[in-house]
Amino acid sequence: MDYIKILLEALEEQISPFLGESYYQALSQENTASQALRETLSEAQHKLFLAYEEHGNARSSIYQEILSRQAFLLAREIYR
Question: Where are the beta strands (DSSP E) in 1-80?
């Protein structure tokens, strides 16, 4: 495992105090909307929605990891 991955994992473990009320409010709204949508879906639609969420989460995770990695690399260059 490389040092950037270790740093990113440590940051993720300690992020909660920094997210703030607006993040948790947006998360709550997202969860409420998602639950309301799920309640209207047929079983087949529900499976499609779960697949959609999984792919979206995977894409978002890749994006965030790349963005964070690039930020660390940029900081390293600046402070060399």
Answer: none
Query: What span, in angstroms and rounded, lies between the C-alpha atoms of 39 and 61?
Result: 27
pLDDT digits (tens, 9 = 90+) for 39-77: 999 999 999 999 999 999 999 999 999 999 999 899 988
Q: Which two tokens stand for residue 15?
A: 């992020």
Q: How far apart are alpha carbons 56 and 50 in whole angstroms? A: 10
Based on the number of CB atoms within 10 Å of its own CB, is 72 exposed (0-12), middle (13-18) or buried (19 or more)? middle
The answer to pTM > 0.85 is no
> Cα–Cα distance between 6 and 13 in angstroms, integer?
11
Q: 68 CB contacts (<8 Å, ≥6 apart)?
A: 4, 8, 11
